Amino acid sequence: MLLGIMTNADLPVKKIPLRIKSAQNRILIRGGRVVNDDRMQDADVYIEDGVIAQIGSDLHVPGGCRVIEAKGRLVIPGGIDTHTHMQLPFMGTSAIDDFYTGTRAALAGGTTMIMDFVLPSRNESLVEAYHKWRAWADPKVCCDYSFHVGVTWWGPKVTQEMEELCQVHGINSFKMFMAYKDVWQLNDTELLHAFDACKRLGALALVHAENGDVIKENSTKLLAQGITGPEGHEMSRPEEVEAEATNRACVLSNQVGCPLYVVHVMSKSAADVLSEKRRAGYVVFGETIAASLGASGSHYRHTCWRHAAAFVMGPPLRSDPTTPGHLMDLLANGDLQTTGTDNCTFSGSQKALGKDDFTKIPYGVNGVEDRMSIVWEKGVAQGKMDPCRFVAVTSTSAAKIFNIYPKKGRIAVGSDADVVVWNPHATRVISAKTHHQAVDFNIFEGMEVHGVAEWVVCGGRVVVEDGEVRVVQGSGRYIPTPVYSPTVYARTPARDAAKAWKKVEREPYTGPVYVANDAS
Ligand code: URP
Ligand code: ZN
Ligand code: ZN
Ligand code: ZN
């Protein structure tokens, strides 16, 4: 199958989104301010058959097209959430937001593409797991999506399968875990081999950076001391446990010349490691998430167990109250590049699997619906970033890093018509009572945010209409991500050449040689 034309037809059961040639397929977004990551311009945007066909003023468009008035609004590329786990089977249950409710909620908040994770069990075929996830996602997705694949165990078969995934199935990123000991965790040698394989394939190595050995030891001690509640989760994995692994991941990947992307950067010290490594020339990228920008670790000490458990995720939210602001500063200045959510939701009764033991509370929080508003509120509304940088960190940088730019991440002629009419002045109050997610709790409950996705167009279809969500299950598409993203790999050949090991030419040693004892 050719990557460029891979569709949901990769599966035996095929569901083709209906694309009717009618006024519904022709949309004019009129009078708004178009914002890309590098410029803003007042212009109309005309969409036809799923792509952006014209941008400018006084456009000549066919009669009968649908008109969306965008005066006083920003017209931005649809958000790309780089990190979700819809319906993930995990810790004895499955995430409650599936590919339908999760992508519907994404669209409601202005995200038109998610990047989810295929996470095989130990010894499970990576390719079979990929097909399993496709079969879960394709009939349900309402927005476009792609996959990262977890390298959750190591062996010769894994390398072959990574190659097949890259060459046949449109995968260009693999996630390695430095935590989840005895489940998904790789040791340093395995990490080196996995990074080597990514490098050879032109794929991007993603890491979950926490020291799983330390977490396991600390958890055992905490439980033995009777600390069984959600606060134990945070205590078992303090900041330095994340920072140490982040540093180690940078060093190991750099040793084999493999570009690295650290997912869910949650702490100041881990983020600072990335800043420092980028200044030293390492090819490293960092993603932070809506939760770490909009919530804090103080919730783990909430006296209501259900409330505290709702925030359990790995790595944990941090209690240092300056963390969200610092992460936002780094996003604004370019040291961090992308925002995801790690959306992996569990209801109260699912979280209660760990009511007597914090290590059994299923990890994960919401975010897919609220990410864009959280970034706007904490970034743009606070004067830390301008609308262009907002577009970069919510969409464009992800499209560039994962090699789907400018099809995604840009308002340009020929790009996919994933477009959001964003009202920067409107506000809304986030609540589980009104959100579109299936989960019964929202970690941002009660927060008033500026920035509302009033109209959302995904693949040329209007899916949010003046705030009303109207979606069709299965209408989203699988978006293959080709290897050798220029944003990731363009500098590596010269960097490898400059850093290549060079043998020192010298005369052979001819002096006496000590006779060694028997090796013992
Ligand atoms: O808490 C989290 N992060 N749950 C999902 C699994 C992962 O590590 O991303
Ligand atoms: Zn296949
Ligand atoms: Zn993770
Ligand atoms: Zn995750």
TrEMBL record:
Top-level taxon: Eukaryota
Residues found modified as N6-carboxylysine: 175
Post-translational modification: Carbamylation allows a single lysine to coordinate two divalent metal cations.
Enzyme Commission number(s) from the entry: 3.5.2.2
Enzyme class: hydrolase
Keyword entries, A-Z: Hydrolase, Metal-binding
Family to which the UniProt record says this protein belongs: Belongs to the metallo-dependent hydrolases superfamily. Hydantoinase/dihydropyrimidinase family.
Entry protein name: dihydropyrimidinase
Species of the source: Hyalella azteca (Amphipod)
Organismal lineage: Eukaryota, Metazoa, Ecdysozoa, Arthropoda, Crustacea
Gene designation per UniProt: LOC108676158
